[in-house]
Amino acid sequence: MASPTNPGGRPRQPSLAQLRAFAAVAEHLHFREAAAEIGMSQPALSGAVSALEETLGVQLLERTTRKVLLSPAGERVAVRAQAVLDAVGALMEEAEAARAPFTGVLRLGVIPTVAPYLLPAVLRLVHDTYPELDLQVHEEQTTSLLDGLAHGRLDLLLLAVPLGVPQVTEIPLFDEDFVLVAPKEHWLGGRGDIPRAALKQLDLLLLDEGHCLRDQALDICREAGRDENTPVTTSAAGLSTLVQLVAGGLGVTLLPRTALRVETARNDLLTTGYFADPAPSRRIALAMRSGSARQPEFEEFAAALRGAMRGLPVRVVEG
């Protein structure tokens, strides 16, 4: 298939819309899912991909009645197309950063076990200090947030670290301890010196798979010597439900200190206990794409956040 040319004899150039459509199809191998991701109708998406094939003079997809496959040429072009889109995203980010800092849009991704407890402080800070900043908040689990950061859907993340992900830079904010939450008459309630070893045999309730807080809690239990075969009841999609299960006597759970007041207030069926030093803890940080043009802005934002969170039950990590 020969590559089409313009009237002047120059090869035609693919458009960004065509590359974006093809990259979405290459990722999902499904026209409906790809169209939904980039906000394009399915016929328009199909037309854009066909136009790209015509422009490049190669067949990119193998279409059947049941599935979509990449041709050998499509596999190679998909890598190049994503690189072009990433470069364009970096160009737009560079241009945005060239304007006055803390103006325009900031798309902030936050994990569910942080959002309800820290967002009030974040929103007050933005309202009072950065009134020209258009903050857009997206609450998602860690895997989804990292995908959004990598593909330019999100600019900055607020989540638990370490992530251990290449090309992602972490800016630490604070450490916070975990607290044991148990039914009212539990034998560990009210104690301030609970040994980690107590976790070995407790009936432990945790969040569903996919929540980083679940993984952190399991790591703490393993460090405490809990047998990996000791059953863990997993029944809750969120901390509020988890705490209600504890209040119902189904077991105990671990809550980060910032969530404690919100989730246990006005519930007289619960008791809390604190671990002996050093208590199990987690670190919360901002995360950005390494080399981001907005890095100085994000580092200044992190410093302001540390100041805004000094009233919370956390240990601020000095930058």
TrEMBL record:
Residues 14-71 form the HTH lysR-type domain. One of its GO terms (cellular component) is protein-DNA complex. The keyword Lyase does not apply. Pfam families: HTH_1, LysR_substrate. Keywords: Activator, DNA-binding, Transcription, Transcription regulation. GO terms for molecular function: DNA binding; DNA-binding transcription factor activity. InterPro entries: LysR_HTH_N (IPR000847), LysR_subst-bd (IPR005119), WH-like_DNA-bd_sf (IPR036388), WH_DNA-bd_sf (IPR036390). It comes from the Bacteria. Belongs to the LysR transcriptional regulatory family. PANTHER family: HYDROGEN PEROXIDE-INDUCIBLE GENES ACTIVATOR (PTHR30346:SF26), TRANSCRIPTIONAL DUAL REGULATOR HCAR-RELATED (PTHR30346). This is Probable hydrogen peroxide-inducible genes activator.
